[in-house]
Design goal:
324 residues, 56% helix, five-stranded parallel sheet, alpha/beta
């Protein structure tokens, strides 16, 4: 026989699956119970069911209205969704309600004290109509969004409430704090400020002098001749340097393109650049934009410093300023 806790949790789960399709509706408790009984493979005592439903109502996990001759009606409550979400994935995980709050706050700033038409909300958000219904219901129940409702429609307009503004600010502050923590941890984990990817032909005139100037300014630099020792595994050492460097200087020249190791280094930096904000710092050495564009349009579109033997100090100072 299923215990009370299992039945209780199954009711919440089954209710969510039904509610998911029509967020603003009420549902017959008997329909929910039939699903639960079918799933656990046994009939549940009616007195026990009423007791469980009343308990869920007292916990504010559902809104339960008993009735004579049946178990009555159930409505969803935010607490029930949040409880279900602790052990199951729901729309709350996508945090789409934050996008809705952001949109409604922007609209309210432009047109204070006016509800935004439902059609405008649906048109201007990159969410399905069902996703908007679920999130709008949740925000309304959390008193973060006021809804203008009409007969025959779930809602016809929405306006952000003060609770919504506070919730949005709290979310943004929390995200900024998390981002700052990640950045600080990245700085802690990074052994080098910068990795210099270059062709061996450009080492004497550009790569080595640039590395030395950056070191004079206080930067920690990964350059192959600084770090590699006899017997080191080249690929492993490069991977380690790429992983432990905050930035990657790429000295683009005619000699750079088409070499196995420079391409390998560039691929590693590009992979990081896709996930982190501005990892690659391109430096053009005696090369045209057309040549760079032919090899890599994405590199050609990045802001780059032009370098030669006479301006290495200036370029090093500019790069160091970006890294600080």
């Amino acid at each position: 026989m299923a215990d009370r806790t299992k039945i209780r949790n199954k009711i919440l789960e089954s209710f969510y699956l039904i509610w998911h399709e029509e967020p603003f509706s009420s549902y017959r408790a008997d329909t929910i119970v039939e699903r639960v009984e079918e799933e656990i493979g046994e009939e549940i005592d009616q007195m026990l069911l009423r007791s469980i439903l009343e308990g869920l109502d007292e916990e504010h996990l559902i809104e339960y209205r008993p009735a004579a001759g049946s178990l009555g009606m159930i409505k969803q409550r935010p607490g029930g969704l949040e409880k279900y979400n602790q052990s199951n994935s729901t729309f709350l995980d996508d945090e789409s309600y934050i996008d809705i709050l952001a949109y409604l706050i922007e609209e309210d700033n432009q047109n204070p004290n006016r509800h935004v038409n439902r059609e405008d909300v649906i048109e201007n958000l990159d969410l399905s109509e069902l996703e908007i219904e679920q999130n709008i219901w949740y925000l309304h129940k959390k008193r973060q969004v006021d809804l203008m409702q009409a007969i025959g429609s779930t809602w016809v307009g929405a306006q952000v409430e003060q609770f919504g503004r506070r919730a949005f600010k709290h979310y943004k502050d929390s995200e900024e704090a998390k981002q700052k923590e990640v950045e600080e941890q990245t700085l802690t984990d990074s052994e080098y400020d910068v990795f210099i990817s270059h062709a061996s032909e450009d080492k004497p005139d550009i790569a080595r002098p640039l590395a030395e100037k950056l070191q004079e300014l206080g930067a920690t630099v990964w350059l192959d001749e600084f770090e590699l020792e006899i017997g080191d595994d080249l690929r492993e050492s490069i991977d380690d340097g790429l992983k432990k460097s905050r930035y990657g200087i790429v000295v683009l020249s005619d000699s750079f393109f088409g070499k196995e190791w420079t391409e390998y280094e560039l691929e590693g930096l590009t992979a990081r650049d896709m996930h982190d904000d501005k990892v690659i710092l391109p430096v053009w050495y005696d090369i045209s934009q057309e040549t760079v564009m032919e090899y890599s349009p994405s590199l050609a579109n990045k802001m780059a410093a032009k370098i030669d033997e006479d301006c290495i100090g200036e370029v090093a100072s500019e790069i160091y300023g970006v890294m600080k």
